Amino acid sequence: MEPVKNEAKTNPSAKANLFSQVFFCWLNPLFRIGYKRRLEEDDMYKVLPEDGSERLGEELQRHWDHEVQKAAKDLRPPKLTKVLIKCYWKPYAVLGIFTLIEALCLSSAAMGKTTTGQIVNLLSNDVNKFDEVTIFLHFLWVGPLQAAAVLGLLWVEIGPSCLAGMAVLVILMPTQTMFGRLFSKFRSKTAALTDNRIRTMNEVVSGIRIIKMYAWEKPFSALVNDVRRKEISKIMSSSYLRGLNMASFFAASKIIVFITFTVYVLLGNTISASRVFVAVSLYSAVRLTVTLFFPSAIEKLSETRISVRRIKTFLLLDEIVKSVPNVLYTQCTFLSSSLVPPSHFPQSSLLSAILGELPYDKGVLKVKGQLTYASQQPWVFPGTIRSNILFGKALHPQKYEKVLRACALKRDMELLPDGDLTVIGDRGATLSGGQKARVNLARAVYQDADIYLLDDPLSAVDAEVGRHLFEQCICGILKNKPRILVTHQLQYLQAADQILVLKEGHMVARGTYSELQRSGVDFTSLLKREEEEGPQAPGAETESRSPRSRTLSQNSEVSHTSSIRSVKDGTEQLPAEPVQTVVEESRSEGTIGVSLYVKYLKAGANILVLIGVVLLQFLAQAAYILQDWWLAYWAGEQEKLNVNGTVIIQNGVNVTEELNLDFYLGIYAGLTGATLIFGFARSLVMFNVLVKAAQSLHNRMFNSILRTPVRFFDVNPIGRVLNRFSKDIGQLDAALPWTFVDFIQIFLQIIGVVAVAASVIPWILIPLVPLIIVFLFLRRYFLQTSRDVKRLESTTRSPVFSHLSSSLQGLWTIRAFRAEERFQNTFDAYQDLHSESWFLFLVTSRWFAVRLDGICAVFVTITAFGCLLLRDQVEAGSVGLALSYAVTLMGMFQWGVRQSAEVENMMTSVERVVEYTELESEAPWETQKRPPPEWPSQGLITFDRVNFSYSSDGPVVLKDMKAVFRPKEKVGIVGRTGAGKSSLVSALFRLAEPEGRIYIDGVLTSEIGLHDLRQKMSIIPQDPVLFTGTMRKNLDPFSQHTDEDLWNALQEVQLKSVVEELPNKMETVLAESGSNFSVGQRQLVCLARAVLRKNRILIIDEATANVDPRTDELIQKTIRDKFRECTVLTIAHRLNTIIDSDRVLVLDAGQIHAYDEPYTLLQNHDGIFFKMVQQTGRQEAVALLQSAKQVSSTLTQQSIMTNGGVGADGNLVIFETAL
After folding, report:
1. Across the chain, what does the average pLDDT equal?
2. Range(s) of the domain holding residue 483
3. Which of 291, 750, 771, 799 would disulfide-bridge 249, Cβ 3.0–4.6 Å?
């Protein structure tokens, strides 16, 4: 595998001196670089050795294994929390690796209990809770300690009345703890819903092609919106709790001071400025800890406990028991064996048992030697083609060249922009199915193994390439090795040394080809015997037989002599296919504009509501300051009385004048009440607006994703799209609203502090100006670097998820190749890369904080000395107010600026989401012009000068195509790999907009809506896709059909018995992407969908490539019976599926090479079609010719009977005049 990145710079913090460590001076060079240009991955520093992913992971694994054993002994469940505490006093980011180690060891049964969505969510959101909890954890003991100290000092100052204030604090703490508990309850419910949503998203993005062709966007949209609605209602509840928590923090100090002084005055004491402000300062010192950090610690702790529980559940899933290397399991020794299973026997089961993936109940299974494996559904990981083939082995140029030629990849490599160093995307999205299959095979062949397990590697390629792979690769390069080949391609069986016939999990027969034919087992019904016919020259007559009987190639010398061309010539003749390249993930630069904030807020509420919110904010802040100011004013008035000692005469008695307690206390109480009401209101309203914004942005992004052309998904890896839906939406849901509200409150308080100080000593504004200038410069200087670091953190996170996702897809292959350790090391490298950016993000924040504290200290000093110098002009109360406010500025200013930077950093998530809400959109789903309801009634398709390319700048894959597919006609579409067969389907379904005109029954398809068009054509796709959900939802997502219809459709594709055996029949929920069905069964479900739709046009896209002949026969029979009245277009690799078509369209390099009846095409010995037939082997070719001839004579008779001599084109002529 390629190195994840170039060698990073050594970390300067490791060698920095004490001064540099304290003031973070070692970061200065990085800031200088960041100020001049955009930071790149190469600018980041290496992770410190003690933070290395591998080291931490191994340490945790050791502790966890120990705990699991100990727990088993003590008969108790293992405790992950205990392990974490034991193992890490400091590093927390490790859980990610740990999850991966486990994921690589999950057994297949356990994979059924977890989903990719859940694992991605564990890594993206749950592990993050550890970062958060570490910040607050210490306050759990600091809080109570600080409260006790403050209580002592207050007692000295104001006596027992301080207890009243403390009582309020004591009541607040459990209330907030209760909030924390409630919060964690919501959090665990939210997490389950988030898993669910991400899993659905994963399926939607993986199966987007099918969803678009079926026009199923609406039911999926409803599905996601439904889960999202439930998720948002939980998020809204927890946000309100957060709002109450925040508001109670904001109001706590006011209530405490109010109650303390009300009690103090009512006990008969007089109020004085010194007492008031000593008390206010002491309370505000303890307030932060007790009312903000302490509850935050509890909230984060309870969230983390949920995360620990979720991760522990995952870690306790069953793992595969590692067997001793080289002694794996099997009783029969295979030489080169071919397995011939019908597709409802999950043929991979035998291979998976040999691989040790499938637990077996009884018997012995021994394997001697090193295994290698090529999976049925080709698996490639994101990286270059070369790294996919070498798979960790060293490059030996000669051997590598040999493997490329044998696997027919040479020509493809020559056409690629960077040859074999071309990067392929997630799940190999940029390669065609055939290319993926050949890379998959090449990987197995390149390994020096003792036994080769090949699970149907020939099904995804056409006959010519298949023959080449069989002769040059399986029987060429590997001829001296034991090979077990699962195949449905019966023409290759004679080359096998031993054949196993499997049926429904039992071995029906075993022996050489000739032994099996003599024994007459079920083998014969699987393959019709054509032995009697003997080899005949093409064109020789034989007794007439059904146009669809199966053939078996006679030439048993196939593997040795038949057409061993020089390996070199062989590959030169094979066609190559175009490859798309993956775009790099966009990462925006520069500051985040005001327009983005406006977009964000407007997504949550309209302008009037927003104006109301702004007013509320100012009212709350005004009440907050006025309450303090009134206390100072009251103390000042009292002071004047005390100094002057005014004596008034009342009823002839001298009385010392006193303040009207009711008046002062009444107004004080009123202002306190106002602070409370406005404080709570603004918090709740603000949270409501921001959560609604998250909801509406998610919906807009999802709708935009559903409406964007398919091309977008070919060039963007799945991890990248999922990252927006998991991590970025996670930020918008939870972190951003809290930070945003916090920032606004603190910002207003800072303005309040400065305003109060300036009203007391106006000239304080003079030194304030240079301080603000220094601060603004510092902030800009900091953000220039910090923003890039944060963006790097986001983009280095995507590969972690992509790597995880692709590793989970290729688990069997990774384990068969014993590559777990290498994949883990790559994961460690990605994780370290991410840790590098995360480490920089944390230390740059500290660098900034230290410098901010300096600025605040200067401001406080100036204010204090100013008050001393002007002590004669200023009232005591005002001085107290100014000073106590200035002191709070120290911590608050730093926090406020950090929050402002944090908000701006989090706004990059909004930016990424907004970017996806504005994706290019395909044509509208419905337009003004609706076709008539019964359209298309005939199924006549006309291509008129159609050019087609997948993107505006991409190559043209169909060139000037003119063709007519007549009503009820069965047309086969053939061509070498990359000739444009699937592009024809894409043009018909308008997956990208074709140039030229396509008519269906005289309606121009480009004028009607996409749904109107796509719903009227049925497709059986190349890769059968099932979605998580019930069987019923998979067949009929719109609930348009009755139960009877559904059962009939299942009956027709012979799946009724299978579904009836499921626990809840039609209501059984399928596993993720239908993995509990075999490929053949999934294909039959797709056929049932087509049967249900009853459309006039059916397109079959290489649907039978992965199915055994019997299922293929069944599919063909159903198509002939059920779709007799329909126009059927079949794209096929196997020529016998289309040889009985009415006409065959031969494509070559995007153009029509020939288009006629199969028999007529076979008369042209220079044509592509004739050559393709010849390449299937002599016997098969004879049979194909025979079928074509028979179809031709049947058609001629029908045409004479129906048309009374009119040419077969009669239909067409009438249509053209009508047009």
Report:
1. 78
2. 334-497
3. 291
